[in-house]
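As a point of orientation, let us examine one representative protein, giving the amino acid sequence and backbone structure tokens.
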Amino acid sequence: MDHARAEHVRKTLTAVSMMAAPACFIVADSLWPVSHTKAADVLADATGSTHAVYAGMVFGFIGFVFMVGAILGLAHMLHERSPGLAMAGAGIAMVGVLAICGAICTQGLVLFEAAQPGRDAAAMTDLLHDMMQSAAPMLLLTFGLSVGVLVLTVGLARTHVVATWSVACVALAAIGLGIGQPFALQAVNVIADIVLLAGLGSIGYTVLAETDEEWEHTPEFHGFARPAMG
């Protein structure tokens, strides 16, 4: 595969990632049954809904796989016009993504098993309580995603490479998820996911509509065009 073809494939995968990540988050947060933060209440939420816990975990993890591509794509769009913000935003956001993936898999699998019928509820509650306390310092790293994305949106706003309303949607979603996820606010999370789909999805459409030359040297935004084919 020559360089031009490789860049075209990378452009397409970036656009797909920007659209697919928030779509997966909507499914994951809609399925996730936990709406409390105390161990006993968390276990009660998951009891009888272990399939939803597992499905939510899987969709969430897949969403963050796509989010890696989306973050790299945003950084690529800034790398010529604002390289400092591109590197800082993407780096901070990647730390958040890694921390969130670890938290999703750990909490999801432990909760899936702890909420199974026949378990000692008191023992499982103590286990969850201890796990949540031990993980608290590491969970601070999860805020890196919101902070990193906000840094990237500053760069996008300054360089005018995407629609202003798209940047605003991504920034609002980052703030909403930064608040909603730690407090298990399902309605806030789903709304933020939808806003993220509008913002990040529209940026993905912009990338898809760019020519390969525009992808390599991102121009200022001048309106949406039909996706470039080939």
Notes: DSSP finds nine helices and no strands in the chain. The two ends are 15 Å apart (CA to CA). The chain has one domain: 3-216. Residues 83-114 form the longest helix (32 residues).
